[in-house]
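Support case: user asked for a sample of complex input and structure output to validate their parser. Sending the pair below.
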Amino acid sequence: MNIDIQLVPFVPNPHLLFDRVVVVIDVLRATSVIIHAMSEGALEIIPVVTAEEAFQMAKAFPRGSVLLGGERESGNIPGFDLGNSPREYVAEKVKEKKLILATTNGTKAFHLVSSGKEIFVGSFLNIGAVAERCLESERDLLIFASGDDGSFSLEDTVSGGMLIELLARRGKKSVFLTDASQCAQILYQRFKDNLLEAFHLSRHGKELISRGFEDDLVYCAQIDITNIVPEFKVEVIRLSDCGMRNGE
Amino acid sequence: MNIDIQLVPFVPNPHLLFDRVVVVIDVLRATSVIIHAMSEGALEIIPVVTAEEAFQMAKAFPRGSVLLGGERESGNIPGFDLGNSPREYVAEKVKEKKLILATTNGTKAFHLVSSGKEIFVGSFLNIGAVAERCLESERDLLIFASGDDGSFSLEDTVSGGMLIELLARRGKKSVFLTDASQCAQILYQRFKDNLLEAFHLSRHGKELISRGFEDDLVYCAQIDITNIVPEFKVEVIRLSDCGMRNGE
């Protein structure tokens, strides 16, 4: 298995997507939101790039049947039902609902990698289950770190590094790492005993703290609190059959 | 001083070049070659992107007054005087000569960052002197890691990380690091006691070893063997007055 990671969120070379598993990571906070919302029973999530697109898309559904969630520059969007704090996405609000999600980095990422063979949603919250799915698929892997407004993000790369560490430990000699994958693995090893430290050092983590979202950092630094692996397919994120395990 | 590092070698955002010092790094081997050749007395070096461009440019100079150097995919170029091994660029060959240099990654990098305010040539060979120049200029800094055929390169980032470490140590609280700069610094800290290990783990390092250039890796892993800081200005690399120190 070849493992590469896109450290800066531009459109990947087509050969890095062809017939590959892609794992999209936006730890703070889009993929953590998606994983949490689906673990609370959300039916499907449609990731869009702008708030305008979200409002436009909502018109295609019966009034009241979808919820709009997301943020712009870490703030709430007027007219949206939910922000971008995972803890808002509780069962009472999202169970059996469709969501349309618009965020700064994470939701765009899905569209950049849409030609991948299988596209999974990853964060620390489900990292072990994502590693299992990658091993089962036996395809080469591209991890897509959604980044920070077009730039490298420390927290997404540390999370990608943890996935690489898990796969390298299990796959041993059959796993081949690019220079970028080795970089991510080293970053994970640096922060593995204190993931929150990486969040506190990162630009985006600092911004979230300054806006009063420090509790979100603590929430998003939790490892393996669910086994679900949401999958992006034909513009929509759902739980595939394999994405729901252990009775969840 | 704000310090950023471009981890993947695409054209930087213009705001990252405006009024900034840029340090171009291609440890294996273009910037190591340039620094070594100038320390051996080469007058000036013109970095070009292709072998064809090098042949074309040579026609503008009197026959025999310039040397052509460089490589394609780590191999020599037919018709060129020199390859891309720093140890070839000895005084007997290059003293008081003009060189035209064409390599896979490093020479292209200079053209991508040409709108920077001051553009220095860095590698482990002169890293301390480069740090001094950056501190003297007091401008914000962009380190440009030339990468590996368009991708992230471990060795260039480790070298950029050493420059960041030196500047952060000297500048203390007045130095601000982006997430990417913190990443490079962590990579340097991982390999600081054994730079050769980083070369041996990197894709390009492995390729050079397989082609018989292991001695170049040992050569390029030397720290501070010269104090010269070549500067790229108006398409040409020369030693500026400040670039020659301590009687060199």
